[in-house]
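User: Last request for today: this protein with magnesium ion, please.
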Amino acid sequence: MQVRSGIPVSPGVVVGPTLVLGSENFRIPRKFVSRDVVESEMVRFHNALDKVCQDIEDHEILVGEQLGSQYAAIFSAHLQMARDPRMVGQVEDAIRNQSNSPEYAVSRTLRKFAEQMQNLGNQYLAERALDIFDLEKRLLRELLGESREELSNLTEPVVILAHDLTPGETAMLNTDYVLGFATEVGGHTSHTAILAGALEIPAVVGLGRCLAGVSGGETVILDGDHGQVVIDPDEATMERFRTSQARNIRVSERLATLETLESETLDGQRVQIFGNIEFPQEVEQCVKRGADGVGLYRTEFLYLGGNKEPTESDHYEAYKQVLSTCGDRPVVIRTLDIGADKVPARIRDRFAESQNPMLGLRSIRLSLQSTPLFKVQLRAILRAAVHGNVRIMFPLVSSLLEFRQAKMILMDVMEDLEDENIEFARDIPIGMMVEVPSAVMLIEEFAREVDFFSIGTNDLIQYTLACDRSDPSVANLYRSGDPSILRMIQAVLKAGEQYGKPVTVCGQMSSDPRFVPLLLGLGLRQISATPHSIPRLKEVVRNISIPEAERIATHACSLDLARDVEHYLLGELGRLCPDLVV
Ligand code: PEP
Ligand code: MG
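Assistant: Here's the final one, the structure of the complex with magnesium ion:
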C-alpha cells in the first residue's frame, strides 16, 4: 500500500482502478490480450522495439558526426538499456504469461525498473531513471501511434493519476467515467482545481512526484476531503473508506433538504448565495441547489474546451441558455479572463515568451489589446441580456484607466448595435473584480465609478502574498486566513458600504464554510461559490446570528498569523456545524 498526501481541492471519497497519464498524457490502458493473439502482440512489441532502437542508432550517428563521440555515447547507453535482456525478458513474460497488452507490459516493466533506480539512494542513478521514462515514452509512441486513446473515449470508471491536467483537458473529462483525479502538480486555487469542483469530481493536487511506480489498473482510494491518495489499499483502509463514504452520503442527503429553505441567519438576516459557473450546463445545478443567481460566470471556458474559436453566436447561445434557466435571478457575466493557466491551444504561441504568465498578458489586459475579440463577446452579452437580468464584470482590473477603457469599448459596441438596428439591453450594471492589491489601495476611487465589486480572493491572495496559486511548493504560504487578506476584504466592504455599491466574494475562500462566519461578521451579505458547496454554506448561515459572526470576525482579526486565524475558524465551524468538519 502506498499513501500520498496532497492538497484537497474538490470533496468526496472514491475508489476505483487507476488510469495513469504520463507527462505526455499518454493513456496507458490495463488491457489483457487473448491467448490466440499473444504471438502477434509479441511481434508488435518487437517491431516497436526495433524501430525505437533504429531511431536511437540514427541519433547516435548524427550526433557523433556533428558533435563528437563523447556526445554520441549518451545514445549508446540508451541503446544498451533498450536492448537489456532482463528488461526485454520481463516485458515478454508479461505479454506471454500474464496476457498483458504490449503497452501495459512496457509501461509496467519500465516503471518498475525506474522506481528501483530512484530508490537506490544515489542521485546519479535516480537521474538515469529519467532515461527509462524516455524509453517508455518512445515505445508507447510507437505502440499507440495514431490510436493513442483520448481521455474523452473512456468506457469504464477510472481514477486518473496524472503529472498535470490543464484546465482545457479537465474541461473535457467525461464525468460518466472519471470518478476522481489526482495530479503531481497544482495548487489550492489553480483553474484545474476549480474545474474539478465545477464538475463535482473529487480531486487532490500537488502530490509531488509519485507516478513512477504506478502503471495503471491498481486500486486506488482518492480522498478529496483530506487530500489523500492510497494506492493498493489494505483491507483496514478499505473499511475506513467505506465508513467515510457512508457518512458523506448521510450528510449530503441531509444537506440536500436545505435546498429549498431560506438562506437566513438565526436573527433573520438574509444572505444571498450565488453560484460560480464555467459551463452553461452548470446553471441548472445552481438553481436546483437554491442559488440566488450566478455571481460569476467564467466565460473563457468557451475558448478552452473545443478546437475552434467561438463565434458571436456561440457566445450568444451560451449566455442565453444561462439567462433563460435563471429567469429573473441576476447573472454576472465576467468578460474573458484568458491568459496565465487559461490559454487556448490555438494562441499558445502568443504567450510563449512570457517568463511570468500570471503577471503577463492576461484577462482584461488581453481584451484591451485584442479589441475585435473583446467586441465579439460584448456584442453577444448585450444581445443576450434582453433574455434576463445581466451584470457585466471586468476581471483583473489594476488601474482606473483599464476600467474606463473597458467601459468605453462597451459603449462603442452599444453604438454599433444601435446603428445596425440589433436588439440589445442598455441598462446593465457594470462592475469589476477586486483581485489585485492596487485595486484595493484605490478602492474609494473605483467605488465612485463602478456599480458593484466582486472580490476574487484566488488572485488577490496570489498577488498580495506573492504566491503562485498553482504552485504546490508554496501552497503552505498561500493562505486565505492571512491577516493582510482579511484587511483587504474589510477595506473593500467599507468602501462598498460608504458608496452604496454591493460587494460579493467570489474566490474559493467563500466556498469554504470555515470562512463564512468571518465574512458575515465583516459585513458581507453576498457570497458567490462553487455550486456544490451552496448547501454547506447555507447550513452555516442558518446556524449563526450576525452578533455571533461579528464576535468571531473581531477575534479572527485580532490574530496575527494565518495559521492561527484558520485554526480558530475551524474550531468555531466545528462548534456551529459539527457535520461540516470531516
Ligand atoms: C479569483 O481570482 O478569485 C476569481 C474568482 O477568478 P479566477 O479564479 O477565475 O481567476
Ligand atoms: Mg481571478
